[in-house]
Amino acid sequence: MWFNNYAEEEQPKVIHTSENRQKKELAAVIDDILHKEVLRKLAVCRDAFTIEFFLPKELLLEPVDQWVLDADVNETLGNCYRLVIRSCERFEEDKLLNRLRNYWLPNTYQSVPNDVIYRVEQDRIGKTRSQLEAGKLFFALKFVPDQFSLFKFIQYGVPFLLWTRISSNDAEEIAAELDRLLNCCATLENLPEELRKERLKIVEDELDQSSMTFNLSLLWDDPDKIPPFSKFSQYAAPTQL
Question: pTM for this structure?
Answer without folding.
Answer: 0.84
